[in-house]
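One-letter codes give the sequence; each number marks local geometry. A record appears below:


***
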Amino acid sequence: MRKADIFIHVMVDGLCTMLALMVFALFHHVLPMKQEAMQVVIENPFEETKTPEVTAESVLRILSYDADDLLSGPGQSKKQNRSGRKNNANGKGGSSLTVDEDAQVSGDNLVPLQEKFAELYTDRAVITDCSYTGPNLAITVSEETDGNIKYYVADIHVRDITCIRSALAQDTYGSGFRDSIENMALLHQALLAVNGDYYGNTNEGVVIRNGVIYRANPTACDVCVLYYDGRMQVMSGASFSVEDAIEEGAWQAWTFGPALLDYDGGVLDTFDSTSHILSANPRTAIGYYEPGHYCLVVVDGRGESSGITLKEFSRLFYRMGCKAAYNLDGGNSSIMVWNQEIINTPSGGGRESSDAIIISEVIADE
């Protein structure tokens, strides 16, 4: 066979291979596809206890307030790592936790949320440029600096756990569905929103959103579960049980990680993760103080702010006094929306995601 013919055959084979790879990438990473979902609904064992509701119109009116009409609101401006499982290859942190998490579960004082922090809530919605109080919510947002690290902290008290919700891009569960955090916040009348765990980027792990189990696949990552009674629990993937989630009343569950504190709320000094994940990056995380009291933290990076390492992130949540903390999707995904505006400086201008964590009032049925 002539050299020219061989060259043509090689070129044709190469083009066919490239075309096949492009088609594979298109269908597996670009085109939205609904995923098979468990669709198991977890009942709220505390449903008989009602909390005040507000109308959607009143929330929209609050979010579009005039700065000249602002009302004054409340302002406020251990142990070594334990060996765990290997991290997986999907860019998420591997677990550094043991299987036994009983210490954290038994340590919570389960006073009904409706009876806690009563002095923080107001019958009338009150919003300023950095705070909100209403019938079921009290939020304070602050910008903080630590050397060359800039980060944003939303301190959150809730009277009803359904104030902490998840939004799915295009209101659809599946891969390839994406939307901006800002748009998801607007569509769901959220006072505050951050990116979630970008569940749609993988078929691995646990996905529970607003009391519905969509997925409970094996994972080497840590899993974070928020329950109807207000507890938040971070566990290794090997520790998660669908039966326990249903029995204990899981409201949300995210799979990303890693855990940022150990089971006793102590600093973690080492993490079973890749060097890229360990290094300084923009980050988003959720922290837990006690039932009804949480925080969301977004750290800027890859710019004037240097980002934060996992070890530094662990120490930050320990200094803040959290009992548990969980790392969510980061990098260009790290975005915080407050009062319909992005308040941080997302790396690369930010990116769309498959899901968001949104904080909103309990909306009355229309």
Observations:
- Residues 90 and 202 are 8 Å apart (CA to CA).
- Residues 23-30, 65-89, 103-107 have pLDDT under 50 and may be disordered.
- The longest strand covers residues 137-146.
- Helices lie at 3-30, 56-63, 102-106, 181-187, 242-248, 275-278, 310-320.
